[in-house]
Amino acid sequence: MTEARARLIEEESKTYRVQGFSCAGCAKTFEENVKHLDGVSDAQVNFGASKITVIGTVSKKELEKAGAFENLHLRDEHEKAAPRIPFWKQKTTMKVYIAIALLLMSFLADYKVGEGSTLPLMLIILSILIGGYTLFIKGLNNLIRLKFDMSTLMTIAIIGAAFIGEWIEGAVVVILFAISEALERYSMDKARQSIASLMDIAPNEALIRRAGKEMLVNVDEIEIGDIMIVKPGQKLAMDGVVIKGMSTINQAAITGESVPVTRSVDDEVFAGTLNEEGLLEVKVTKRVEDTTIAKIIHLVEEAQAEKAPSQAFVDKFAKYYTPAIILLAALIVVIPPTLLGGEWSEWIYLGLATLVVGCPCALVVSTPIAVVTAIGNAARNGVLIKGGVYLEEAGALRAIAFDKTGTLTKGVPTVTDFITLKGEELETLKITAAIEKGSQHPLASAIMRKAEDSGLDFHSVQVEEFQSLTGKGLKAQVDGVQYYVGSPALFQDLHKEIESTIHDLIIQLQNEGKTVMVGGTENEILSLIAVADEVRESSKEVIQKLNQIGIDTVMLTGDNRRTAEAIGHQVGVKNIEADLLPEDKLTYIKGLNDKHQRVAMVGDGVNDAPALAASTVGVAMGGAGTDTALETADIALMSDDLSKLPYTIQLSRKALKIIKQNITFSLAIKAFALLLIVPGWLTLWMAIFADMGATLLVTLNSLRLMKKNDDE
């Protein structure tokens, strides 16, 4: 590590919430201003989340001074926001009211006092200054630095309109642009509300028991190991483990699932969830900044800062588009009067109208509002999308590969059939469970659960000379009798041949996708135990929905072909790949990528890490209880359930469609308005209406994503 980098890491890093951003360009200007402050090594603005992270030593007052051009206000990251001021009461909206009132007064004054009076003109100039003073400050500063953006274009156009005596049109341009800015600010605030609502989910205080005393403590002061008391009807303030009591918990805030789940001793619970019935005592396991809801908020805000591919295209396009519009306007002003004998005032007017209509407002907001809105909507529905790039990629997916165990199935083996061929059933099950108690195999736990559910005390059975037969099963003595429990192959070796009726029964069970174990002695088979990893209730419906929307579904598993096909056909996947090692899954995903270009892999985020990484989009299940899933996946389904996957694909497709619509419409309306220059029909009024109308339409179109829900 270099000395400079080490020094940078040692410097203080501080994050603030920013209030007052009106556009992405303003956020970028603020970021550049902060970077030039003394004591600041670096700064990063997250426009979507309205945050700035500053590395270095600088006061909040100095930062607000750097944002004075936009009247920005800062607060600490975890500080409660001031009550939201209604849109119609905000300063930016109030100046629009005043500017409109002054313009109307100028018309009235002109009607009352007649020609020759300077009062109407003074009122119009006052309307322009009040409605556009922040615009002029930004525009003139940019012009001095030869930085060409929306503010620069509008400033030149308004000054030009005043220069050629078009005062009224200049005032209307100012007012309409101010309305457009206010609407853009409002729409971004609406889009951010999805995150603001997440922040308000968990309480700021909790009832804590310390040293035998109960006290109300702020979450910042709660320590790991504290005992939190949660009464019925209260929300949990911290993550933890239940140590006393039993209740139903509504986890909709985390997983998006409104159906309550039962939680009792040793079960994990999360901050922001609602305790519906019983009194719970919960041992706190994480500090407030490390809770699941805090991580979700952080990851969603980081995701909103990640640019989607279409946004990167728009930013790059706008970088060259704006100077090109200024050059075009200059050519329109100069060439016709000098070379074709046109009227200077007429062509200056058309040049100014070109500047206004060329303003890239609608184009610039076409993508970020859609991305922020969609990611926020997904978070509220229990789906964590890590950025605009994954939102767009999910919308373009052509194939999805599923790991079987723990994804399409529950991942917990269960005894489905216990068939007694000789002897008494419960006694045989009791002896089998007693022998399996010495095994670490997952199938052993399934047999022991079956015995417990049957009320059998197998722990009292004396097992002697226990021995594991690697790859085949177990043997042990019970009451002087040698018993064996293992695969059919073990008894094939013991008995040389298995009776045809028993063999046929084994094959029948295996064809149903079950793993078959055999119990018996050296001389006879006493029982057949069929164990299966149960298919999730939602798997079949999810696969069916994905198939219907044109997704090629694939199941990948290390299980044998017979079991894999039984499960695969049950859930309805189109392709089944069995007997796969982890490296085989990776190879198969790479092959799918070559065939379909965009492929998702759905797994648990741990065992399937190589395949998840190789896919276009890695989707992890059960993010609410797994830090690894939250960190490694591109998309995390917070509930341990696939039902949110079709919703995610549909939301992503709708977002992609809306982004394309916005970009196409923004460019089309500009092109149409610019064509009106040829016959000389373009006016400043038409230009600003075209610009504001396009901005308003793409904004409203993007906000449609707020209403997308998982029932659609």
UniProtKB/TrEMBL annotation:
Pfam families: E1-E2_ATPase, HMA, Hydrolase. Its EC number is 7.2.2.21. Its main location: membrane. The chain crosses the membrane at residues 117-136, 320-341, 347-376, 663-682. Residues 12-75 form the HMA domain. The keyword Translocase applies. The keyword Iron does not apply. InterPro entries: ATPase_P-typ_cyto_dom_N, ATPase_P-typ_P_site, ATPase_P-typ_TM_dom_sf, ATPase_P-typ_transduc_dom_A_sf, ATPase_P-type_domA, Cation_Transport_ATPase_IB, HAD-like_sf, HAD_sf. Keywords: ATP-binding, Cadmium, Cell membrane, Ion transport, Membrane, Metal-binding, Nucleotide-binding, Phosphoprotein, Translocase, Transmembrane, Transmembrane helix, Transport. It is found in: Cell membrane. It catalyses: Cd(2+)(in) + ATP + H2O = Cd(2+)(out) + ADP + phosphate + H(+). NCBIfam families: ATPase-IB1_Cu, ATPase-IB2_Cd, ATPase-IB_hvy, ATPase_P-type. This is Cd(2+)-exporting ATPase.
